[in-house]
Fold VOC family protein.
Amino acid sequence: METASPPSQYQPGLRLDGVDHLAFVTWRPRATHEFYTQALGMPLIHAITATGWVTEDYPDFVHFFFDMGRGNRIAFFYYFGLPEEEPPSDLMHRSRHVAFHVDTEEELLAWRDRLKAHGVRVTRPMGHELIESIYFDDPNGLQLEITRPLREMSGIDSRDAELTLAALADVVESPWPSAQALWQRKAELIRKNAEVPGA
């Protein structure tokens, strides 16, 4: 008679909550923004610009988050250099993912070690000013993420997300769109807004 193996030291639970989200790829960020904010009434609450993360072919991206209400969010990746006529492809498949939430770094690392012990390829913990995450794939190729908050996302100024979108509108028309170009254009817009009396 087989006996159950003793539980590991850490078996953290996973949950979907206000930190977490369903994320998809968009080829048309401005049209996506208009649809979710105007047709569906979901405010754009923040936007993250990053480089060198998800794919080698398209390392630079912007991650837009819309508030679905009740603590839920939907997010979209926009990849620099991805043409609007690009059909759904392996990039879309690999970039569709579900995120789960844990509270502490200890839990996050425990999940990383547990997955690696089962032969699952897991990224090193990657983060920015809001969250730290590990990424891995399920047997169907769906990208999964376990994330912990570094600070409260609700404290992000929605104006910052709007400036990111405005900067992106300029950058995507340039010959060399990139995350670095977006950061520079956004900084210019911030300085320009600061110069307007009463802004």
Q: What stands out?
A: The CA atoms of residues 193 and 199 lie 6 Å apart. The beta strands are 21-25, 44-50, 61-69, 72-79, 97-101, 126-127, 131-137, 143-149. The radius of gyration is 19 Å. The longest strand covers residues 61-69.
